Amino acid sequence: MNQAVLLPDQASREDRASAPAPAPVVPVILSGGSGSRLWPVSRASFPKQLWPLISERTMLQETALRGAGDGFAPPVIVCNEEHRFLIAEQLREAGIEGARIVLEPVGRNSAPAIAAAAMLVAEQHPGAVLWMMAADAAIGRPDALRDAVAAAVAAARDQRIVTFGMKPTRAETGYGYIEVGEPLAGSPGVHALRRFVEKPDAARAAELVAGGRHLWNSGMYVFTADTLLEEMREHSPDVLAAVRRAVEGRQTDLDFIRLQPEAFRLAPDISIDYAVAERTSRAAVVPADLGWSDVGSWDALWDVSVKDAAGNVAVGDVLLEHARDCYVRSDGIVTAVTGLTDAIVVVTEDAVLVTHRDRAQDVKKVVDRLRADGRHEAVAHNRCYRPWGFYESLITGDRFQVKRIVVSPGQKLSLQKHYHRAEHWVVVAGTALVTRDGEEVLVRENESIYLPLGCTHRLNNPGHIPLTLIEVQSGPYLSEDDVVRIEDSYNRR
Fold this sequence. Notes:
The protein is α+β, with helices and mostly antiparallel strands. The chain contains twelve helices and 28 strands.
């Protein structure tokens, strides 16, 4: 029998046509940290990745959309419990469907978080490729990013643990560096990774950049789930053991995956760099020029933002006169800056930051001092977001406090009571359905209701528009921990 003879290019075309399509890449997004160097905008209760700092989308949304579309599976997001509803809502607004949101009981750095994501993915697809990235980095060249990810994915399928080295644009002391080795045979665009270099001082940073062999460490990685777990088993078995118990003991809570708290707390606090990347023989790097920034300080944000002819970045209600190379942001009142150069001025509802751009890294020291003094401004904004909406304090005095509460349509607060305060609610927009000791009362605009000390109560918005009310609290103790939840639709504890 005569057999058809295929030319090499024909054979490869037929092989590609008959071969199954590769499994989609799974984006793994780490959304931890407080971004304290971007205080007073970024705080632990509402960190930088949840803010629209570069574009109209939040940093988290921009990150999730980079890993959306053909060739990508729904993402795995690892975050803390406090941010879960905010993250879920931001993903919904960005059109990201099917995300798995994994809740860390306590922050343990990147290695335990990544191990948990890899284990969850490996339960169905051990050979799946994971693209791990932080939720708060900026990428200025998305086309170059796609090419870099494609090269990294190919190398990851060859059992490499691949990171991305960013072409340095300055002698930066706030980043770690990667020394690049020889190109890897059979992996176009991918090089051996010689070593990691800790964040250097200014002189050493200048030396590294001038030498041409070092790149910024972006912290992004690509690997298969089974490769990462194999390397962790060899190099960080204590991390793997603790995380495995936390994953095996997980619970599903609404749309969230709760890791077993006691087991996860026993995981060492260690980064993926220290736990695996610096120890493995499989490390590789993709050199890339992506217009990348970790947006770790106000100076870095100024660097990646669009500037006017004088080099200024103005956000919000800002007036500039004879100012140059400044970053000025106001999230509220009008802010005027005159005669300043290289200044950073940030105004929020409850705090003002003024610093020279060269001292932008020192903002963390301010936050540390505020935290040491027990100031709530170190960790929380005046506006506090909840799964049902938000509230903000308007006036606080001796034995009384006035708040504005906004409840989204169809949402309701927990059924609760207080031991130390009574409350008076005045509806100013929308309609409230109030439960008070078993009685249901419909309260309309310009109407009010009194909730005496110790009564069981709940606030519900049955309407189609946001419900806004003014709450007047009175009593000897008015802190938020005087809330006894009897029933809660969001499984809060």
